[in-house]
Amino acid sequence: MLAKIHVTLKNGVLDSQGKAVHQALNDLGYAEVEDVRLGKYMEVALSGISEQEAQTRVTEMCEKLLANTVIESYRFSLEPAE
Fold first, then answer.
1. Burial of 58 (0-12, 13-18, 19+ CB in 10 A)
2. C-alpha gyration radius of the chain
3. What's CA 42's distance to the chain center, in Å?
4. Are 70 and 12 in contact (CB under 8 A)?
5. Would you report the helix, strand and coil content of the chain in percent, each value rounded to 5?
6. Tell me: domain 2-79, CATH 3.60.20.30, correct?
7. Are 8 and 72 in contact (CB under 8 A)?
8. Is the whole-model pTM more than 0.70?
9. Which residues contact 47 (CB under 8 A, 6 or more apart)?
């Protein structure tokens, strides 16, 4: 099973990297870009557990290590491994 995890800053948290990318895009002539928010993307391969167990385990991983839940939110999907 493959967990695809997206971690982003919560709304209201200053995203200084996103602001820098936004400004750079505007400077390059992309005036239509109104905002940029950056985040992290991770893929975690899992084996030997059910989908329900994987949901629980990936949630624990995100809560304990992969996301700083004070300032970040996360979401994930589970897919069959190829």
1. buried
2. 16
3. 7
4. no
5. 35, 30, 40
6. no
7. yes
8. yes
9. 1, 81
